Amino acid sequence: MLASTPNVAAILRAFHVLPTLQTGSSGSSRCISSRANAIFKDAKSAEFLAAVGDKESLSLLGGLPEVVVTGRANVGKSSLLNSVIGRRDLLFTSKKAGRTQTLNFFRVGSHPGHLVVVDSPGYGARGRPEWGALFNHYIETRKQLCRVYILISAAHGMSATDEAMLSSLNAQIQSLDGTCWTLQAIITRADALKTNGRAQINQIEQDVFRIAPTCLPPIITSCPSKGIPFGIDEVRKSISHACGILP
Fold this sequence. Notes:
Elements: H1 6-14, H2 27-40, E1 47-52, E2 66-71, H3 77-85, E3 103-108, E4 115-119, H4 129-141, E5 145-153, H5 160-175, E6 182-188, H6 197-211, E7 216-220, H7 232-242
Parallel strand pairs: 2-4, 2-5, 5-6, 6-7
Antiparallel strand pairs: 1-3, 3-4
């Protein structure tokens, strides 16, 4: 029997099993969600800071805690981050893979801001070696980095490149001295799943924990162009917690 958790609630809503689901969330949990949303509520003040394409330029940015999002090209990073930040057009979305070619820094909150979200180039067939080198340098040296989020497509499941990236990130957490960032998976486009959706989600979750034991439990999300997104509050709460803004 499935436990009544926020993630399962999202799955059930996605597959129209129930119109709503009482998850048994405590008042404390609701309070934390409200506080996390408050951090992101001033969406108009969110600002693009810089696009970094070389290692040297990274030193020019800093101060606020950061999280970075990675994933296979066209996995839905831009759509997810627009929903999380609360702006439909802050990040450019495209059906063409490989649009993001630099590390793009976005401040959350009015100046001086609460935290910074970093969008990274997609990996896979449309990726480039120099993008990977920049990303690796960033996660190995960035002292402000608090968490790495790896996005996995619900519709496509765990690809070979996803597995390689997840395994690499897990190995870095276990081997690098003084690593201060944590790792978490986000499952995107759950609304695209059909009748066997829960089985597919379960398989992705099992794959994540098999490949990367250090990875935090996946957050299940959907950001349809038409319709109501879900999982966004959980992502905001996770980011706020990772950055030390929420307990």
